[in-house]
Request: fold
Amino acid sequence: MDAIKAMAQAANIHGPTPDWLVSDAPVDYPAAVAAMEARVAAIRDGRAGELVWLLQHPPLYTAGTSADRADLLDPDRFPVYRTGRGGQFTYHGPGQRVAYVMLDLDRRGRDLRRFVWLLEEWLIRALARFNVIGERREGRVGIWVDRARHPGPAGPQPGREDKIAAIGIRVRRWVSYHGVALNVEPDLGHFAGIVPCGVTGHGVTSLVDLGLPVTLADADTALRAAWDEVF
Reply:
């Protein structure tokens, strides 16, 4: 049996297929948070099903519950939103596929660490569909790419690792929300206004930065297929 399936079954993480929603136009951050909170309450009360919401935001920074003000290097560059998700500062903007994941973890097993592991695995398997090896790193949140293995147009860069996807979740009454962000073709210069996720000494990358002609629609297809494998 596939190791990920064994882990998922052990945690009872499998459940019914959630609803999927794709928003084509960028969604303002406060509106997205309000919509997520309403959906979480409805899921908890049995008035709505689970949801995976794929969207983009206009350029902005968010500060998680562990954010250090010193990591906001350019506070006047874009709007900054304090948020209840875990983690530190991150950037959202056009060309980045944000996936907000609203699942009933009460039914899927109350194991937050395993849930985060599965979100990581979801991203890793989605990236594999583009022949990109996404990796976990001890002590660093998110999914990382070895630039010696995936050099992109600039050529091999031994010893360099760049972040290609971020993870930040919140759980209310055992319903998850917030989620993951995959860099498809964002303006990577926009990350310069923060220390992404508080990690120094590393950069950020995207699928297009790696030299891959991937669109948001392509990413959505990969995410959906990988979801069915993991969840």
